[in-house]
Amino acid sequence: MMGNEELKVKGIVEECAIKAKAAARQLAVTSEAAKNQGLIEIAQALELKSQEIIEANREDMEQAKSQGISGALLDRLLLTPERIKAMAQGVREVAALPDPIGEVSDLKIRPSGIRVGKMRVPLGVIAMVYEARPNVTVDAAALCLKAGNAVLLRGGSEAYQSNRKLAELISQALRVAGLPHEAVQLIPTTDRRSITALGALDQYIDVLIARGGEGLMQALAGATVPLFRHGKGICHTYIDVDADLTKAVDIVFNAKVSRPGVCNALETLLVHREVAARVVPAICQRLQEAGVELVGTPEVQALAPNVGVASTEDWGTEYLGLKLAIKVVSNLDEAIEHIHRYGSLHSEAIITENYSSARRFLETVDAAAVFVNASTRFNDGSEFGLGAEIGISTQKLHARGPMGIRELTTTKFIVLGSGEVR
Amino acid sequence: MMGNEELKVKGIVEECAIKAKAAARQLAVTSEAAKNQGLIEIAQALELKSQEIIEANREDMEQAKSQGISGALLDRLLLTPERIKAMAQGVREVAALPDPIGEVSDLKIRPSGIRVGKMRVPLGVIAMVYEARPNVTVDAAALCLKAGNAVLLRGGSEAYQSNRKLAELISQALRVAGLPHEAVQLIPTTDRRSITALGALDQYIDVLIARGGEGLMQALAGATVPLFRHGKGICHTYIDVDADLTKAVDIVFNAKVSRPGVCNALETLLVHREVAARVVPAICQRLQEAGVELVGTPEVQALAPNVGVASTEDWGTEYLGLKLAIKVVSNLDEAIEHIHRYGSLHSEAIITENYSSARRFLETVDAAAVFVNASTRFNDGSEFGLGAEIGISTQKLHARGPMGIRELTTTKFIVLGSGEVR
Lengths: 422, 422
Description:
Shape of chain A: globular
CATH class of the largest domain in chain A: Alpha Beta
Oligomer: homodimer
Low-confidence stretches of chain A: none
Number of helices of chain A: 15
Radius of gyration of chain A: 24 Å
Distance between the termini of chain A: 51 Å
Number of domains of chain A: 2
Mean pLDDT of chain A: 95
């Protein structure tokens, strides 16, 4: 039996979804110029109402502080005039990207006489569930709109006041631009059951993008709306026997240290036994100087000081911080086997000058992005040339790797006939 | 609490899935020539062991007759030497199709210096749950193998003996060709709980293709493996005010009568009011002569004899037989609105000589395939030029419309660097 409160939450969410579906039908046939005008209005509104946004954000910040939140988490939540300006600039960049909608590909004449092609069209209604950072609200709205989709945003409770203000400004801007203002809606509750409710509304919502941890996944167990999961990144770099060891040290250092809290950061280093003695000490020293805690197998411990014991659990852990696990392996096969066993299909790299090893690693390793002689930190929509991204998918269906505007669309077959029957 | 029997079923299914995963890793790096050799061995085995297949099929046929199954359903189950020959021929045709695996697209040099491209790779392990027809066993195995995937087949209980024999022959043929024989496995139980068990094994299975009705969907509620649903086809044809009425009659007749039991057959006809008097009588007469039962709105009933009353329920019904619902509409907008309200996103057609109406219908109607002046019966992998198909998807993600070999693959990003860091 559903409680009254639960029914109420479901009702609120369903009402948003119904409005979003109607807005999506309208947006699907909106011209590129009109969508871009909407985006430019949004950018302007963010800048003009910067002060209002900061005031709303202050409420969230005070609430967070009173709950004892501090450090990096608090900083993620904070909005400043500069950050708002950057958000507005991001929206303008999305407006400048090419519009994929309406593009027809593979049009060909079939023996029956019919002309068959694929037309790129929006997905429809996208639901997005995410955590604290309020800039995601703006990024997601801009990308979804550009691809002709309506979007239902369910942000974290920590950023609720900021998100509410941002969504309100976006809706107003859409109205000014003559677009359906219900194309972007913030779900007006942070009740956890609203996430489960979103996941059940497959008659209105075409896909749900889930950016968050285990709790979020639990709320979505049994969802009938297809999910894009933002998987975690247990990323490896393998230093091959034929590696250029100077490159190896630089790449490993960059992959671990440049931004350790993100999903494309390095978590486990694998080193070929024959080069371990020549490269492990240098890597360990450089990482330790940067404050990285190291754990490793006994062979690694024998090569460098202050390396802790790596337990089996370490191999499956996404540290998201200044910690690295190191293992010595016998060959490329053992490295690939380790990656397939413990990796999360995110970003995997080999450092080698050997053509055959590079080729085999590229073809064999099953991950969203596979690298030769480069830092896994490059797994990013902008670095890959897709423009802004709405997330990095570690699933295999529909979208794998950074998801840009194109991944927020689908195709339909179009058939141009002149009376053909079968 | 799980019963002993349920645990046993889960154990059986999991064992198959673990073996399939290992086979998939091997197949993913198998050459095109070796995969094709496997397919040719399969085709030969089917022909050589035709008699064994027919004997196994006889057991299924006798069982079905004893359960009172008859007519079209019994015929779907029957295998004959000719049908087996056709199955073998189908496998040879799949072998002759181009292999998409390993293809790299969109390779470009980024400002950072890295080269980024997308490599086409197999999905991995595909589970396929389907109903009575045993030829699906062979088609699915061939298509999955060609795309480098392992496949777990869970056929209907009616065809169990036939499927078991077919799967056994396929496995033997794979072994002869030096390929992993566990790349094709029939789940060795028809216990309904095996379907639910498949849906829960997301650590081994990459996608589950569900071809079946509501009962199947219930067994898969809560599945964590992503699903490809074979949606039903509530397909419409709209005769516009500017239609060529001769084409209209031919197309409607073909769409309804040529094969009424399939998903791309016509179920509801929409006719513009201004041409209704000129076209409805001719269509009704021709359909009634072919034994089609008609239901319609009062306007339709006034134009032709022996037309029943169409209730609201008719608009949402997939008859899958010789029955058609007919409605008169005021204009293109009303037709599109009706389609969006009652259609199942499958195949939708407009008959018109008007350029703007055709264009608007093509761009606005949200379905897997949208037709101008052609029969919806063309929605088919072979007619669209994709080669054999494993089904027609009415969902929007990953694959929409007929699913051929390409839709059984995914991509991964590959990054070729020379020491780049970020």
